[in-house]
């Protein structure tokens, strides 16, 4: 099935996946996920749109996800998607995330955070394709041009 594009509904969202994280990625995710219990203040609608039950549960859910990542546990594709989106939003958004306070709450500069975040985006399980890659039924990436691996 290589090269075939799968809709997200066709990828097993509950399949458990382990992502090999280095120390900086792990520290970045720790800061990002735990900031939801600190300076970040999501609205109810935003928390639900990110895949969490509600704004009240977001902080406890992200803490629980962090604990599982810290133990190097496998997470479902759905959980990795929530982790990635929570990290993206808390870093960038000054409306619902840490935004301009990020460098103080996390200890990471914006430049370092962008580099780490792009690396995480490349490592995480994929649930949609792009012009650069497709996603097989298991959620694995098939690169359209293998020479673009880190572009």
Question: How does this structure look, described?
Answer:
The chain is mainly alpha-helical and 151 residues long. It has one domain (13-128). It has helices spanning 23-34, 44-49, 55-70, 77-92, 102-106, 110-123; strands at residues 16-17, 75-76, 133-135, 141-143. A two-stranded antiparallel ribbon has the order 1-2. A two-stranded antiparallel sheet has the order 3-4. The relative contact order is 0.20. Residues 1-11 have low confidence and may be disordered.
Largest sheet: 2 strands, antiparallel
Order of helix and strand elements from N to C terminus: EHHHEHHHEE
- Using the CA coordinates, give the radius of gyration: 16 Å
Overall shape: globular
Average pLDDT: 82
* Overall tally of domains: 1
Question: Which percent band covers the strand fraction?
Answer: 5-15%
* Total of helices: 6
Instruction: Count the beta strands.
Output: 4
Structural class: mainly alpha
How far apart the termini lie comes to 25 Å
